[in-house]
Design goal:
Elements: H1 3-17, E1 31-32, E2 34-43, E3 46-55, E4 65-70, E5 84-88, E6 91-95, E7 103-104, E8 108-113, E9 120-129, E10 134-135, E11 142-148, E12 154-155
Parallel strand pairs: 1-10
Antiparallel strand pairs: 2-3, 2-12, 3-7, 3-8, 4-6, 4-9, 5-6, 9-11
Length: about 160
């Protein structure tokens, strides 16, 4: 085997074994199963979202990002938890924090005001970033919830 082929083979083998070093190291092809569950309520122009993110494993995820998209605009000037930011008046993006295999993070709670007083709206919830880990079961981290302005919790 030529020196160049040996070098390429060695580099490919090293990359196939581990990407990164230390705490964040993971095998190429690492897979996790992220899931988001909770409930949403709408009443008198207020929208409450309670969300728990979990990782059913097998790999650890150092950080993931979940996107909440609303069919109706939210009122401007509202503060969000430190782990979240506004993407637009209809989108909030939040970091989940560390998700160890077979673990969950604390519940994320949002108390938002809508721009008007809709009788209903939809909330789309989904993972948009997983720190390079693939999710073999994306169905349990993507939800579309129709929420009526009744104050009732709509579970996802």
């Amino acid at each position: 085997m030529s020196v160049m082929r040996k070098a390429l083979f060695g580099a490919a083998l090293a990359a196939a074994v581990v990407v990164g070093t230390g705490e964040g190291a993971r095998a190429v092809g690492s897979e996790a199963d992220l899931a988001h569950h909770g409930h949403v309520s709408l009443w008198e122009g207020r929208l409450g979202v309670w969300l728990v993110s979990e990782n059913h494993g097998p790999s650890h995820v150092s950080q993931a990002t979940v996107r909440l998209a609303f069919s109706e605009p939210m009122a401007g000037g509202q503060e969000l938890p430190p782990s979240c930011l506004w993407g637009s008046d209809r989108v909030v993006v939040c970091r989940t924090g560390e998700l160890r295999a077979a673990g969950a993070v604390e519940e994320l709670a949002l108390d938002l005001r809508t721009a008007g007083s809709p009788e209903e709206l939809t909330v789309d919830i989904g993972t948009i970033w997983t720190d390079g880990i693939s999710d073999g079961n994306p169905k349990n981290d993507r939800h579309r919830v129709l929420v009526l302005s009744t104050g009732d919790p709509y579970v996802f």
